[in-house]
Design brief:
CATH superfamily of the largest domain: Toll/interleukin-1 receptor homology (TIR) domain
Bound molecules: zinc ion
Structural class: alpha/beta
Radius of gyration: 21 Å
Order of helices and strands: EEEEHHEHHEHHEEHEHEHEHEHEH
CATH class of the largest domain: Alpha Beta
Helix content: 40-55%
CATH topology of the largest domain: Rossmann fold
Largest sheet: 5 strands, mixed
Strand content: 15-25%
Number of strands: 13
Shape: globular
């Protein structure tokens, strides 16, 4: 049972009162917030976040916590997490709108039950920092006949098309633990694959896949499309500037998969301008790559099940 006495301002979003959860021996704060969900935050991260911290940054962290909860983890926010999450790009508008659908379904007790978009959890689920964003995303869902608002007080309903889209999303995300690595097949990068990409994926709990057999064909065939379609995410490395990598990353983006962008430091300046806007890991050594890619994957997707 909770009372007002064991509630405090949420350290993540700072606009809700969160329940304080006592956790013996942990040198930090453990809270459960109606907007963000449950998390632990270290003392150092707490003092960092208490300094002026933009609404957008808080919205991103809040969305990240909720996504972690959905994956079944109560995340520990350290100063490193704060930095990583604030550096990571915001999910696409389409993903943010789907976030509303997923959250609505998660809170349902019966089939076809309505939900209230004004509940604070929807702000986090859609990475929104204000109600205007939320209403914009809801109008997108309405336009697509996936969900619609029913009452002025925030009552909404998922439409049949929305349930079908949720099925597709679930099939895509639950079944796959595979990370597709798109990279150049230069012989001198073989070690980078084994001790860099492969290691990062395995250590973060995912199954690495690479299509080296298509090396000599040098075209995108059905097998590659099939591999990407059945992957959870794509790692695109631009070292060597193989044109196929640009295509594979573009294709993966089109179907809404998360992409991890990487390129060896000495080739960063040759990177195509379209790619430069993304937060690219400019790796130096194979060890550097393995370590930074692993922590980026874990901070964005959470640890994989493997
Ligand atoms: Zn919160």
């Amino acid at each position: 049972m909770s009372s007002d006495s064991d509630k405090d301002k949420c350290e993540v979003c700072s606009d809700q009162m969160a329940t304080f959860i006592p956790s013996g021996g942990f040198d930090g704060i453990h809270q459960n917030c109606p907007r963000c969900g449950e998390f632990k935050i270290s003392g150092t991260a707490c003092s960092l976040i208490r300094q002026p911290h933009g609404k957008d940054k808080r919205a991103k962290l809040s969305g990240w916590v909720r996504a972690q909860n959905r994956n079944g983890t109560v995340p520990l926010i350290t100063s490193e997490t704060l930095q990583k999450v604030s550096e990571s790009p915001l999910p696409s508008i389409v993903e943010r709108a789907y976030g509303i659908l997923i959250e609505a379904e998660a809170g349902m007790k019966g089939l076809g039950e309505s939900f209230n978009i004004l509940e604070p959890r929807f702000l986090a689920a859609s990475y929104s920092s204000n109600k205007q964003d939320l209403h914009f995303l809801l109008s997108m869902l309405k336009e697509q006949r996936l969900a619609e608002g029913k009452t002025l007080a925030g009552g909404c309903e998922i439409l049949p098309g929305g349930y079908m889209r949720l099925e597709e999303l679930k099939r895509k995300s639950s079944s796959s633990t595979k990370g597709f690595v798109a990279m150049s097949f230069q012989v001198d990068l073989n070690d980078v694959y084994s001790n860099g990409f492969q290691l990062a994926l395995v250590n973060s709990g995912y199954e690495p896949t690479r299509m080296d057999k298509v090396e000599h064909i040098n075209r995108i065939d059905d097998e590659i499309i099939n591999q990407i379609n059945t992957s959870k995410f794509v790692v695109a490395d631009f070292t060597g500037h193989r044109s196929g990598v640009y295509f594979e990353a573009g294709y993966a983006m089109g179907i809404g998969l998360p992409i991890f962008w990487t390129c060896r430091k000495d080739e960063m300046s040759d990177l195509h301008f379209d790619i430069r806007q993304f937060n690219c890991i400019d790796w130096d050594t194979t060890e550097d790559l393995a370590q930074r890619l692993q922590s980026r994957i874990e901070s964005i997707l959470g640890r994989g099940p493997r």
